[in-house]
Fold these 4 entries.
Entry 1:
Amino acid sequence: MNCELGCGEFIPIRFPGAYIVKEDSVSLQKEPRFLSHTIMKLSINEKVRVLKDSGLIQEKTPDIASWVLVETSDGKKGYVFGVFLKSEDEYWR
């Protein structure tokens, strides 16, 4: 497969439940958008709970995903771009 801009992931929705952060320094945002205030940075392998999918799908080349409302283990809530999360039984890119 040849992808001119890189082969990304398409993650249209994340269902409520337990997830793991796939990359280091993932931003937990106040609102479901890239330029929102960052509440904190999440670490790789950090566990979070998805509370709901925002339904707002955006592209961050080469990935397309929705923003999801999550809660951290210490109770902080905010939005994460869904491509940065995985369930425990999901393939890790």
Note: The chain has a mean pLDDT of 87.
Entry 2:
Amino acid sequence: MLPETVCWLLLGLPSCLRVAHPPLSMPPPAAPLCAQAACADAWRQFLARFAGQYLPFRAAVHAVAALDCLAGLARVATTPG
């Protein structure tokens, strides 16, 4: 049972568990919105920087995939039967 002296916030109510936290342990409501905006900005910056590196990265991934395919074929070729 939750203490009556503390104003607890009920976060979720699944069928088997009650999840509650005191208000002081939770971030202010504006923080998640700021974090989402910061993440979106960081993602756009990453995409802008990666755009110049895309072709070399694509070539490297293609080469690694070809080597993986050849290694798999070599393993199959060495098995008896």
Note: DSSP finds two helices and two strands in the chain.
Entry 3:
Amino acid sequence: MCWMNFFSANGELQDKKIMITAGPTYEKIDPVRFIGNYSSGKMGFALAEECARRGAEVTLIAGPVQLKTQHSRIRRIDVESAGEMSVASKKNTFCRSRCGYSLCGSSRFPSGGGSR
């Protein structure tokens, strides 16, 4: 394959459904504090844009970021916590051609979930 063909948008993902997760998650400790990370979500958003440009129908599940989606083939679902991201991912995995995860989710879940 020529390297120029790699970057062409010739519809090779036409009729494919792709789910991508991107960005950080915030886990509430109490009403004013949370555990989070510095993930920007830029990689996931770039992947979503490129897949859409190549013809795919993309579901992008995004943590709290300020990034915008440009392509009309991207359906964005905004979430805040890792639990919300997990639920949204499970709901949108059914019948997907491909799934990509480019998030930096929290590996610790505070007990109580900020209900105190």
Note: The mean pLDDT is 82.
Entry 4:
Amino acid sequence: MGHGEKSVFLIERFLRLTPKEALAIRWHMGGFDDAAKGTPLTGAYEQCPLALLLHMADDGDLFLTKARRKWTVESCVGNKKFKAG
């Protein structure tokens, strides 16, 4: 069982999900879920755009959470590679 299936299984112990919610949660890891390796995600994302939005939100949160730990305003402004705006 991959991370997406496990997430749906655990949530459904407490809440009843709609089919679209279950699909979105199942595919929230995108291609990073070992169970999804070799599976085209476009079908899931076309059938349920919420799946793509949840994946993007999850991925964006991970990036921003990691960035917050590493960066400060001073380190970004002082970084010549960083361009504001």
Note: The radius of gyration is 17 Å.
